[in-house]
Amino acid sequence: MARDYYRILGVDSKASDQEIKRAYRKLARELHPDVNPDDAAQEKFRDVSDAYEVLSDPEKRRVVDMGGDPLDSSPGGFGGGGFSGFGGGGLGDVFEAFFGGGMGGGGRGPRGRVREGNDALIRMELDLDECANGVSRELTVDTAILCDKCQGSGTEGDSKPSTCPTCHGAGEVQSVQRSFLGQVMTSRPCPTCAGVGEIIENPCSKCSGDGRVRTRRNLTVKIPAGVGDGMRVRLAGQGEVGPGGGPAGDLYVEVTEREHEFLTRDGSTLHVTARVPMFDAALGAEVSVPTVIDGELTVEVPAGTQTGDSKVLRGHGMPQVNSQARGNLVVHFDVAVPSRLDKKQADKLRELKALFPDEGPHVARRGGQDQGGGIFSRLRDTFAGR
Questions:
Q1: Whose CA is closest to 290, among 135, 129, 88, 104?
Q2: Neighbour-count burial for 126-148, b at 16+ CB within 10 Å, e otherwise
Q3: I need a surface site. Which of 14, 89, 132, 373 has the fewest CB within 10 A?
Q4: Comparing 374 with 173, which gets the higher pLDDT?
Q5: Is residue 91, in this structure, part of any structural domain at all?
C-alpha cells in the first residue's frame, strides 16, 4: 500500500510548495537525530525526509496524486516501473508521471530565480551560571546578505534579465528518445539558464549576478535562563539570504554547556557533594554550598549523618526555560574519615572507642543499618546526654 506522504508531513493534498517546505522544516527540527536521539524519532525523521523528497519533486508528487509510491520498487508501486494502479489513465499518464511532459509535451515551467535562503548554525559555549541566569552575547557571523548594489536583482545598473535563447523562457529543454515503447519525450532543466528561463547578460559587478554577497556582521543574541547543553535558540530571518535576494533563512545558536567546578546538572535539578569530617557528622555542623542564582547557602548537617545521606533544597536548582519554576538542589553528604593520625590523635580515638565496647566491625543485615545504629548515631546520643 502506498504511503500517505501528505499525512506524514501533516499537510493537505493541495498544499503549495512553500507550505510543504515549511512543514518539513518544522518536523525536521523536532526529529533530527542531533536534537532528538530517540529511536522512534529517528524513524519518523526518515519518514519525514522521504515525504519531503517525494512531495518537493513535481514528478514524484504526480505519482503520489495518482495513487502510487515513487519510492516503492515493488511491481505496481510506480517506483519499479509497474503500470498497475494508475486508474486506467493509460500510458500517457505513465509518461506524464515519469518524464514530466509525457506524450503531450507539457512541462514544469521555469523555476524562480529568487529562492529562500538556507538556515545557519553557530555554537556558543556557556558556563552553568550563564545558563541559569540567561545572557546577551555579541556574535560575529559570516553569512550571505542582500547585495546593496543591485538590491538582489543581480543586474548592473538599469539593465534587465533577458529571455534564455536556449529554452526560450521555458526553463527546460526537451528531447525525444526511442525505446521499446516507441518515442519518449523527456524534459530536463535548461543547461544555459539552470532552469530559470532567463539569463543576466550584464551581471552586477559586486555579486556577479547572484543578488547576494558574503560578509561578516555583528548581532546580539539573548539566551534565555534555563537553557542546557544541546539546546538551540532560533533567530528568525538571520540566516543566509537566498539566491536572487530571496528571503533569509533562520540562524540557530546551539548551546554547549561547560562543566561546573562543584555542581552537576540533571535537567533542572542540581547536585552537590559536601565532604563532612567524621566528628562534624557525628555531632552535627553546618556547611556552605554554592548555587547558580542564590549565592552561597548554609546547610545544616544533622548529628549522626552517614555517607550517602542527602538533603533537598527546594527551588534552588536551575530555572526552567520560559517559566518561573525552578528545580531543586540536592546536597549529598560524604563523611570523611582521617587517613593519617599522630600518636596523640590515635590515643584519643582509642579512648573514644572504649566508650563503645559493643561496637566493632561486623556484617550488616540486609535492608539498612543494624537495630542499634552506627557509631555516629551513638556518638550523637552520647554527647546529647551530657
A1: 129
A2: bebebbbeebeeeeebebbbbbe
A3: 14
A4: 173
A5: no
Residue 226 contacts residue 132 (beta carbons within 8 Å): yes
75 or 4: which carries more pLDDT confidence?
A: 4
228 and 134 part of one domain: yes
Q: How many CA atoms lie within 13 A of 170 on its CB side?
A: 16
Taking alpha carbons only, the member of 106, 105, 102, 78 closest to residue 181 is 102
pTM score of the predicted model: 0.59
**Cβ neighbours around 278 below 10 Å, total:** 17
Residues 357-378, mean pLDDT to the nearest whole number: 63
Structural domain contains residue 79: no
pLDDT averaged over the chain? 81
Place of cell 596523640: 344
Q: Cell match 536556449: residue?
A: 166
Q: Which domain holds residue 35?
A: 1-71
User: Do the beta carbons of residue 342 and residue 349 sit within 8 Å?
Assistant: no
User: Residue with C-alpha cell 542499634?
Assistant: 372
Q: Which uninterrupted H or E stretch holds 236?
A: none
With beta carbons less than 8 A apart as the criterion, state whether 114 and 154 touch: no
- In whole angstroms, give the CA distance from residue 66 to residue 94: 10
Please name the amino acid found at residue 81. G
The span from the CA of 9 to the CA of 43, in Å, is 14
What distance in Å separates the CA atoms of residue 112 and residue 17, rounded to the nearest whole number?
A: 12
Binding residues for Zn(2+) are 147, 150, 164, 167, 190, 193, 204, 207
Give the number of domains in the chain: 4
Q: Work out the pLDDT band at 195, boundaries 50, 70, 90.
A: confident
pLDDT tens by residue, 241-270:
988 888 889 999 999 999 999 999 999 999
